[in-house]
Amino acid sequence: MRVCLIGAGRIGRLHGALVAAQPGVEEVVIADVDPQRAAEMASAIGGHAAPTAEAAMDGADAVIIAASTDAHASLVAAAIERGLPTFCEKPLALDLTGTVELAERIEALGAVVQVGFQRRFDPGYREARRLVESGDLGTVYLVRLIAHDHEPPPDAYIPSSGGLFRDS
Description:
Blueprint: E1 2-6, H1 10-20, E2 27-31, H2 35-45, E3 48-49, H3 53-57, E4 62-65, H4 72-81, E5 86-89, H5 96-109, E6 113-116, H6 123-134, H7 158-161, H8 163-167
Parallel strand pairs: 1-2, 1-4, 2-3, 4-5, 5-6
Helix pairs in contact: 4-5
C-alpha cells in the first residue's frame, strides 16, 4: 500500500512514523508547505518527499491529512475527488458552512473519510459519557477541559491554524 501524508509538522511526524511501521505499507510519500521539512521526515521514516500535495496523491492508495487547519477542507476535497480513502486531523473545515458543504460532498460521492479525534477512544472520556448518559453522575453544571501541547506551535502555524479552540 502507498500512503500519502500531507503535513510534516508535529502531528504529521507522529502519523508518518506510525503508518510507516504498519505491515503492508510499502511507501509513505510526504508533502509539506516546507519541502525541506518533508524531505527530513521522509528520510527519518524511509519514505519519499513529493513537491506538492497533488504529486503526493498520485498513485496513492490512501491519504492522511495533517496539514494546517486552513488547508483541511481543500485537501480532503482533492483526495475524495480522486476516490482515495482519507484520514483528516480535526477539524474538517474552519467553519460550520465549510464543514457542512464538505460533509455533503463526501456523502454524495460515497467517500471514505475519518476525522481524527482521539478522545472518542479515551477510556476516561468513555466512562464520563456513560456516567452522564446513565444519570449516575447527576446534573452536570460545568465541564472544564484543558488541551495543550508540550511546546507552543511555530509562529508560522498560528495564523493558519484556526486557534487552539477551533483546532480542538
